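Chain A, query sequence.
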Amino acid sequence: MSESDNTGSSDHIAELQSAAREMVGAARGLLDAVERVLEDDERVAAFVGGLTDVLRSASDAVSRATAGDETDPGAPAEDRVQHIVVS
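Chain A, predicted structure.
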């Protein structure tokens, strides 16, 4: 292995170390933010309320999408599947 190969490897290792340090810093920042939210009861309540709203909206959307399905769930698969011919 030549010295230039070692230098190239060292450069790559240094880049990976730098990227890893940045990821650790970002994770610390995220954990700090989560900790601040958890310390404030109002923020926790707001987060849970928002999450509940999102889940309720998703549930309503699924209910609306499936409510229009007039096909008998017990019908054979060929009656429940629409085949689209693509040319």
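The chain is about 80% helix and 0% strand. The two ends are 57 Å apart (CA to CA).
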